[in-house]
Design brief:
2 domains; 11 helices; 370 residues; two-stranded antiparallel ribbon; FAD/NAD(P)-binding domain; Flavocytochrome C3, Chain A, domain 1
């Protein structure tokens, strides 16, 4: 199969569908390539609740810029990055390719978040300050009613109405170049058949959560203890990242890190988070406590805790509580697992039930309560 379009979009999540609809609104002919079948289209967007850090429908939360910039990581040379305060067109070339959070990008993101939300409203998406799985919050969040699935369905319907050609079960494999080296399209595989789509290319196919080779390459051996939080992540195989790098795009961001959430490994539910650990004690397979469970509000610190868990033997931890947990307000909303917690009348019996050393667990809890 071969096809020629003005724009070829790889991926049908929120980024890809937004790009496709925007191009269609401008009068372009558009092809969308989606690895999943139609009933599972949308990647991670389909499964997320899609909370946006907004104080209202038009304005980002007060801490949006600060939190995003602070999440950049690393210890950068201040003499090098000070040029980031200059107009972008005056930046030195090495700075343009530097892997840090671009302050200009943050500004654009903050300024355009409200208009993007209003644009999505035009397709029938409703927004509200919905309940979250956090027992308390350090910032404000708004979400589409119906979660990310509502975004996918609304944008896909609009793309179809505007006559986009959406190719399901079609995985992009590489960029097509002209004899002069210009990128002119995408090579893909559809149900085992090689095909080519000619047009200007938008890569919007997510990360590499579903690719164990790339996970091991960038995250390291401990990546074997991770898994996608939701089913959509399994479709993210990293081809878009690989194609961009092979084309000469500048790498940016933290290739050795990822968005992390603590989940119940026993559960197959969508996003089976466990976020009430601040009311108890986190211990690893050796029965040892390894982090301050409540150093920050849960919504601001759960990634830090998840990363600490990953550093433990086999990437596992247990949250241990006493009967006083039931006195904590709203703790049940923080657990999305469909598996029941293990209970026991004594610390020793609990340790035996979960496979921990009873003496080690008892010593850890005694030290915590001292």
């Amino acid at each position: 199969m071969n096809g020629s379009f003005d724009v070829v979009v790889v991926g049908a999540g929120i980024a890809g569908l937004s790009a496709a609809v925007s191009a269609l609104e401008a009068g372009a002919s558009v092809a969308v390539l989606e690895r999943a079948a139609k009933e599972e289209r949308g990647g991670n967007t389909r499964y997320t609740e899609s909370f946006w850090r907004m104080r209202d429908h038009d304005t980002v939360a007060h801490d949006f810029d600060e939190r995003l910039a602070g999440n950049a990581g690393g210890h950068f040379d201040p003499e090098f990055v000070k040029d980031a305060g200059r107009p972008y067109e005056d930046w030195p070339r090495p700075l343009r390719a530097f892997g840090f959070t671009d302050p200009e990008l943050i500004r654009v993101w903050a300024d355009d978040a409200g208009p993007a939300l209003r644009w999505l409203e035009g397709f029938g998406v409703r927004w509200d300050f919905l309940p979250t799985y956090f027992p308390y919050q350090s910032t404000t969040r708004i979400a589409p009613v119906g979660g990310g699935l509502a975004l996918v369905e609304a944008l896909a319907a609009e793309a179809e109405r505007l006559s986009a050609s959406i190719y399901y079960e079609t995985a992009a494999r590489g960029l097509v170049r002209s004899d002069e080296g210009e990128i002119v399209g995408v090579e893909a595989v559809q149900r085992g058949r090689l095909c080519h789509f000619v047009g200007r290319v938008v890569l919007a196919s997510g990360g590499f959560e579903g690719n164990p080779e790339m996970l091991a390459r960038y995250i390291g051996p401990k990546a074997q203890w991770t898994r996608p939080v939701a089913r959509g992540g399994y479709y993210n195989r990293g081809e878009g990242v690989a194609m961009g790098l092979a084309a000469g795009a500048a790498p940016a961001g933290e290739f050795g890190a990822f968005h992390a959430q603590p989940v119940d490994p026993r559960s197959g539910a969508i996003e089976p988070v466990v976020l009430h650990y601040g009311y108890g004690v986190l211990v690893n397979r050796e029965g040892a406590r390894f982090t301050d469970e409540a150093a920050r509000p849960v919504d601001a610190g759960y990634e830090r805790v998840a990363r600490a868990v990953l550093e433990q033997p086999e990437g596992l931890a247990w949250a241990v509580f006493d009967a006083g947990l039931d006195d904590a307000p709203h703790w049940r909303v923080t657990v999305r697992s469909d598996r029941e917690p293990l209970e026991a009348p004594t610390v020793g019996a609990l340790a035996a039930a979960v496979g921990l050393d009873p003496a080690a667990l008892a010593a850890t809890l005694a030290a915590y309560n001292a």
